[in-house]
Amino acid sequence: MGPLVAIVSFVCSVGNVPLAAVLWRGGISFGGVVSFIFADLIILPILDIYRKYYGWKVMGYILITFYVTMAAAGYVVELLFAALGIIPQNRNVVAFTSGVQWDYTTVLNIVFLVLAAVLVLRFIRTGGISMLKMMNRPAHEMEH
Question: What is the mean pLDDT of each run of 10 residues along the chain (144 residues)?
Fold first, then answer.
């Protein structure tokens, strides 16, 4: 069930881990959680991209191949972890343990936000916007 939930949930690679924790707390199997985490490659927007680039047939092949692989990996992990007795028993998962804090991560976020702003300004001031517009034109128009 993990990959099926992932397909319709439209969650990205970053957002699927907290959602996986919620599913774990809700009772989904450990292997189902693992296959849900793997399934970020077959969410509907990405399947649409596969369809546009490769066509319906290849998109269907990717969907089926990835789904079977993810489901099989979930079963293997479930069986292996169960055999070793290392499936976590505590399902009381808390996604957020603290509020906003002032620490080194906050300082680094501010520093790199300023750096990103400086780089965007430099990009704009040195003709980056016109370069992007030029790159959008077909090659035969640029030859003349």
Answer: 79 80 89 88 89 96 94 94 92 71 89 97 94 80 64
C-alpha dist (Å) from residue 127 to 16, 29, 124, 130, 142: 38, 53, 6, 6, 17
Burial class of residue 93 (count of CB atoms within 10 Å of its CB; 0-12, 13-18, 19+): middle
Q: Is the dihedral of CA 107, 112, 118, 121 positive or negative?
A: negative
User: Which candidate, 27, 32, 42, 43, places its Cα nearest to that of 71?
Assistant: 32
Residue 125: count of CB within 10 angstroms of its CB: 9
**The overall pTM is greater than 0.70:** no
